[in-house]
Amino acid sequence: MKRAHSKEIVWQVSESIIPPGSPLPFTKVNGSRYVGVNQITADVTMFDGLPAKVRLTRWAMGWSLGWDSMPGGDISLYEGGWERVSDQSN
Predict the structure, then answer these.
(1) Domain assignment present for 11
(2) What is the reported pLDDT for 17?
(3) Considering the domain boundaries, does residue 89 fall inside one?
(4) CB-based contacts of 74: which residues, under 8 Å, 6+ apart?
(5) pLDDT (tens digit, 9 = 90+) per residue, 59-72?
(6) How many domains does the chain have?
(7) 64 lies in some domain
(8) How many CB atoms lie within 10 A of CB 44?
(9) Pairwise CA distance, residues 86 & 36, whole Å
(10) What are phi and psi of 13, to 5 degrees?
């Protein structure tokens, strides 16, 4: 059985957890890799150009997604797209 490429999984999982037709919170996956067999880490470029690190963990029902690092603060999806809802630049 061939493992799916980690970058493809990052895109697929991210698309599956937001409302249909919504933009992803990131514009580019700069690099991704498996960590063992049940985790993927990825460096991404966010909607506003800032870098972030995402971690996916495989469990019985699929993949969960969490953010290891998100400089610039938390984000939220509004009708107009993604926005920063807190400023952690200080």
Answers:
(1) yes
(2) 93
(3) no
(4) 84, 85, 86, 88
(5) 998 999 999 999 99
(6) 1
(7) yes
(8) 23
(9) 33
(10) -65, -45
Under 8 Å CB-to-CB from 5, ≥6 apart: which residues?
A: none
C-alpha separations of 14 from 4, 45, 56, 88, 90 in Å:
15, 14, 10, 23, 28
* Confidence at 1, pLDDT banded by 50, 70, 90: very low
Is 57 contained in some domain? yes
pLDDT tens column, 8-66: 999 999 999 999 999 999 999 999 999 998 999 999 999 999 999 999 999 998 999 99
Sign of the CA dihedral running 7, 56, 71, 27: positive
Q: Which domain covers residue 75, as residue numbers?
A: 6-84
For 51, phi and psi rounded to 5 degrees? -80, 160
Which token pair is 51? 């870098």
